[in-house]
Amino acid sequence: MSKAMPEVAVLRIGHRPERDQRVTTHVGLAARALGARGMYLAADDPGVIASIEDVASRWGGDFFVENDVKWRRCILDWKAAGGRVAHLTMYGLRMTDVIDEIRGEERVLVVVGAEKVPGDIYGLADYNVSVTTQPHSEISSLALFLDHLFEGKELNREYPDAKIRIEPTKVGKKTVER
Ligand code: SAM
For a surface tag, which of 1, 35, 110, 117 has the fewest beta carbons within 10 Å of its beta carbon? Predict the structure, then answer.
């Protein structure tokens, strides 16, 4: 029997409502589509939360989004409940060297930043993980991390309660509404 995959949530820190709304919405959508259970937003931005919830309500699944969490409290509570924390940063250890160990954890909180992240995060994290050791973005690093963590098994996940789903076609667009 194959081993269960870890339960994953994402903590988005450093969000600036005046400039990061689109990126943070896409962090949430990528997290949902690629197998995370939910996203904590360490900022007060109900518009971002509403956009992600709107997608989740139509496309199915039980993805949660929580607005305005305090990032340190979120990390400490997660760890107190026995979970582990993986901070995605270009300065961390190579993802390819640590991903197998992280896959062995039961619950993983994946922290992604916006601009410079508070220095304390590096010490609070159980894993500081770099995806390529090159600078890129929170969306690309999260997507690659989740895909390697779940070994691609999240890619063809079904959402049985979806109100709308896509029927894959070679040409054109086909959606099915329930
Ligand atoms: N210069 C910033 C810093 O010192 O943290 C990085 C800003 S980057 C635009 C925003 C976020 O993308 C980072 O906080 C990190 O979570 C993620 N990120 C960017 N490149 C990464 C990489 N190579 N590996 C893992 N995460 C990365």
Answer: 1
β-pair partners for 175: 166
Give the integer Cα–Cα distance in Å for 3 and 105: 11
CA dist 153 and 21 (Å) reads: 29
Mean per-residue pLDDT of the chain = 97
Mean pLDDT, to the nearest integer, of 43-58? 98
Which two three-digit tokens encode residue 60?
């199915």
Confirm if 31 and 60 have CB atoms less than 8 A apart.
no
Q: Closest Cα to atom 16, ligand 1: which residue?
A: 112
How would you classify the pairing of strands 84-94 and 127-130?
parallel
Using alpha carbons only, what angle is made at residue 78 by residues 24 and 48, rounded to the nearest 5 degrees?
20
Residue with the smallest CA separation from ligand 1 atom 27 is 89
Structural tokens at position 161? 């309660």
Domains of the chain: 7-177 (3.40.1280.10)
Where are any strands of DSSP class E within 34-151? 38-41, 64-66, 84-94, 107-112, 127-130
Interval between CA 88 and ligand 1 midpoint (Å): 7
- Stated as kind and residue range, the H or E segment containing 84 is strand 84-94
